[in-house]
Amino acid sequence: MVDYICHRVLCTFIQIERVYRTIKSLRAEVKFSVSPFGLYRPGDSAGMPPPISGFDPYSQLYADTLLWLQKGWVDFMAPQLYWAVNSTHQSYPMLLDWWLKHNPANRCDFGALSVRTGCVIKPDLY
C-alpha cells in the first residue's frame, strides 16, 4: 500500500509542477493557486502536531501541499481552514499557526481569518 501511495503522490506533484511551468511559459503574469484541505499529515511526525487529527489528504488524495509550497509550484495557496476556534482536534488557531510557520515565501492566503477570529491580516504577511 505504501508504494502505491508514494507513486500516486509522485504523479500528483509532477502534474502540479507541469501545470505551474506551463502557465508560466505561456503567460508569466498569470497566477496559479490551489485551495487544499486544511490538514497536512495529521498524526505523522512530518505533519501537524497532536492533538490535530483527522483526514489525511496526503494518503487519501495524494496531495503533498507542503512540498508544492516549498518548491514554489504555486503562486499562492488558500488552505481550507473552516474549523471552530475552540475545536480540540482541528483547532483553527493551531492550524493557522502551523500554516504560517510552514509558509516559506508568504504564499498562503487565509480568507476566513477575519470571519473566524475577528483579526485582520497584516499586509506584511503578503
Question: What is the strand and helix layout of this fold?
Answer:
Blueprint: H1 2-26, E1 33-34, H2 57-61, H3 65-71, E2 76-77, H4 92-101, H5 113-117
Parallel strand pairs: 1-2
Describe what this molecule looks like in 3D.
It contains five helices and two strands. With 126 residues, the protein is mainly α. Strands 1-2 form a two-stranded parallel ribbon. The longest helix has 25 residues, at 2-26. It is globular. The model is unreliable at 113-118 (pLDDT under 50).
Total helical segments: 5
Q: Choose one word for the global shape.
A: globular
Provide the domain count. Answer: 1
As laid out across the biggest beta sheet, the strand order is 1-2
The value of Rg in angstroms is 15 Å
Brief sketch in words of this structure:
With 126 residues, the protein is mostly helical.
What descriptive keywords fit this protein?
126 residues; mainly alpha; 5 helices
